[in-house]
Specification:
By secondary structure, the protein is α+β, with helices and mostly antiparallel strands. It is built from three helices and nine strands, in the order H-E-E-E-H-E-E-E-E-H-E-E. Helices cover about 30% and strands about 30% of the residues.
Length: about 200
Amino acid sequence: MLIGLTGLVVLVVAGAAIAAGPLMSRVEHPKYDVVSRDGDYEIRAYAPMIIAQAEVQGARRPAIEEGFRIIGGYIFGANQAKAKIAMTAPVQQQASAATAPADGVASDRWSVSFVMPSNWTLDTLPPPADDRIKLTPMPAQRMVALTFSGSYSDGILADKTRELRDYAQRKGLAVSGAPLLAFYNPPWTLPMLRRNEVMLACSC
């Protein structure tokens, strides 16, 4: 009986873990049109958006954790109006231009950002209480993206960045800038259910 009960508890916990990732990620995403799709690769036309971003130093993993904490405070009410702003996905990370490596991960300076919900404008978003946070309007742009599931160690992200650059070269796509890393799910999401992306700005 005890073994059966233990097995049932394990199944319930596993089921909750499987459901948590998709449920927690049903939030607003940036708006884009798919220009073309080739397996896991897409060329996307993004609409204009506003991002809240923070510049942080350190290795990639601790930098995104610190950036998330800073911007999370802003949307959860640590702003001059004490207003709550809805969470969106993905959390984005990009090496700062001055130190941007080709593989996208071997940097010690990072921009971490959240896209602001589309019902807010620069005029209505509350000013940040933390001067490390900048609200930045982003123009419409095209990106070539590679989507993958699983874990996202520095080694995996470097490999995916190389795959994306190789794909762009094979297809004759003109890409520029440091890769934009995008993570859509909470950290407790099972790896097989995660949505991760590497993107490059594209003149295509």
